[in-house]
Amino acid sequence: MGWRTPLVFWGVAAGAAVSLFLSDVPLFKKDVLIKIPVVSNYFIDKTPDSDKPF
């Protein structure tokens, strides 16, 4: 019980840090972030094709 709470805290913090740092990588965004129901609408690209330069 003594190690469980700190390990859970550091695990959640590490997962949040990885998600923050990799949120601009298209592969991570497509494979991970869009599949999370709470945050998927934030990461879906709604820019029309006519406004994208490439």
Q: What does this protein structure show overall?
A:
With 54 residues, the chain is mostly helical. The protein has a domain at 23-54. 52% of the residues lie in helices and 0% in strands. The protein has helices at residues 4-21, 26-31, 40-43. The longest helix is centred in the first third of the chain and has 18 residues, at 4-21. The chain is elongated. The N and C termini lie far apart (53 Å). The mean pLDDT is 91.
Descriptive labels:
3 helices; mainly alpha; Cytochrome_b-c1_su10_fun; 54 residues
Helix content: 40-55%
Order of helices and strands: HHH
End-to-end distance = 53 Å
Structural class: mainly alpha
Low-confidence stretches: none
Residue-averaged pLDDT, rounded? 91
Radius of gyration: 16 Å
How many helices? 3
Q: Overall 3D geometry?
A: elongated
Strand content: under 5%
Based on DSSP secondary structure assignment, what is the total number of beta strands?
A: 0
The biggest beta sheet reads: none
Specify the oligomeric state: single chain
Topology at a glance:
Layout: H1 4-21, H2 26-31, H3 40-43
Concise summary:
This protein is mainly alpha-helical and 54 residues long. 52% of the residues lie in helices and 0% in strands.
